[in-house]
Amino acid sequence: MVKQIFAIKRKPGMTFEEFKRYYLAVHAPLVRKSFPEIRKYVVNLALQRGKETPYDAVTEIYWDNVETIIRIAKSDTYKNVIMPDEDNFADRQSGVVVLTEEYPQK
């Protein structure tokens, strides 16, 4: 299994609470509905604790293989539905995406 890790910063002018609400109530369900190939989807929200953090969320999406990720990234659904929705809450220019293989140690 392959894991895609996204480090996400909210778009300028959006509060953390607005970001959190939109991500969890709108974007994440849209992604899950659009791509049944997803094996696991985890949104990790930063604990702000009164100060700004470099990223507001680190999201993990698990897939069967890299080929599925490539196919999804080239799909009309990603280009016409998901990507435009990302602009509603995320600063896509400051985000980071890493493909990984997971090696649990415990």
Structural overview:
With 106 residues, the protein is α+β, with helices and mostly antiparallel strands. It has a single domain (2-100), classed as Alpha-Beta Plaits, CATH 3.30.70. The protein is 37% helix and 24% strand. It contains 3 helices and 4 strands. It has helices spanning 16-34, 66-74, 76-86, and strands at 2-8, 40-45, 57-63, 96-100. A 4-stranded antiparallel sheet has the order 2-3-1-4. The chain is globular and about 40 Å long. It starts with a strand and ends in a 6-residue tail after the last strand. The mean pLDDT is 96.
Helicity range:
25-40%
DSSP, total strands? 4
Count every helix, treating DSSP H or I runs of 4 or more residues as helices. Answer: 3
CATH structural fold name: Alpha-Beta Plaits
Task: Report the sheet-strand fraction.
Answer: 15-25%
In the CATH hierarchy, the architecture is: 2-Layer Sandwich
Notable features of this structure?
Alpha-Beta Plaits, four-stranded antiparallel sheet, single chain, 106 residues, alpha+beta
